[in-house]
Amino acid sequence: MTREEAIELLEDKNLPLEKVKEIFYNFKNDMEIVGMVAMNLSQRTSVYDKEKGKSPIMTELLIELSQVEDMGSRWAVAKNPHTPTEILEKLSHDDINLVRALVATNPNTPVNVLNRLFNDEKIVRDGLSGNPNTPIKLLNILADDRDKMVRLRVAENPSTTEEILKKLANDSDIDVSKAAQIRLEKLNEKK
Predict the structure, then answer these.
(1) How many other CB atoms are there within 10 angstroms of residue 175's CB atom?
(2) What's the pLDDT at 155?
(3) For residues 52 and 32, what is the distance between their CA atoms, to the nearest angstrom?
(4) CB-based contact 83:62 (threshold 8 Å)
(5) Rounded mean pLDDT of the chain?
(6) Which pLDDT value is given to residue 50?
(7) Would you call 131 helix, strand, or coil by DSSP?
């Protein structure tokens, strides 16, 4: 198989994973193809359907991709819902802050790693605001963040408590306030 054929095949997100794996191992030193393998895997997953795309081959490729020099590949692994927790733990120490920030957003990231990432730089801490596994004490702190997008993600986070939502419902930013009010209404409907 030529490089051009491999690139063309990887554009198909329905390409059998066995073929994606074969291409990866045949072109492991070609960072463009490695990046395309990572993107192909990303397109097969869904934050809404946790089982979509899950397979032993997917896991094997995610582990392999977590070790490549291409930042975009590690980025794709960090956000993938099928990435094993031990790989997320490893990537939480990555030199690239965007990789660590995506680890912070991944719902599979262990709570002890999320707690540690809270002490990282701002872009990484911001990633915690939308993660449903972020501890409540951290969501409470993030609800007071100067960045409106952080507060908005806290308001939309399904784990945010009613107490935090009430605080955000009075936020000076209309989008944050509205998001919190909508979540409060939904909570009250369930009662």
Answers:
(1) 13
(2) 97
(3) 25
(4) yes
(5) 92
(6) 61
(7) coil
Give the start-to-end residue ranges of the domains of the chain.
1-109, 129-191
Give the tokens for residue 148. 């409106």
Q: Rounded CA gap, 126 and 146, in Å? A: 11
pLDDT of residue 153: 94
What tens digit of pLDDT does each residue of 8-26 get? Answer: 999 988 899 999 999 999 9
Residue 160, SS3 per DSSP: coil
Tokens 């009430």 locate to 166
Ramachandran region of residue 108, left (φ > 0), alpha (ψ -120 to 50) or beta? alpha
pTM (predicted TM-score): 0.86
Three-state SS for 66-118 is CCCCCHHHHHHHHHCCCCCHHHHHHHCCCCCHHHHHHHHHCCCCCHHHHHHHC
Alpha-carbon distances, residue 29 vs 9, 42, 111, 126 (angstroms)? 18, 20, 34, 33
DSSP-derived 3-state class of residue 155? helix
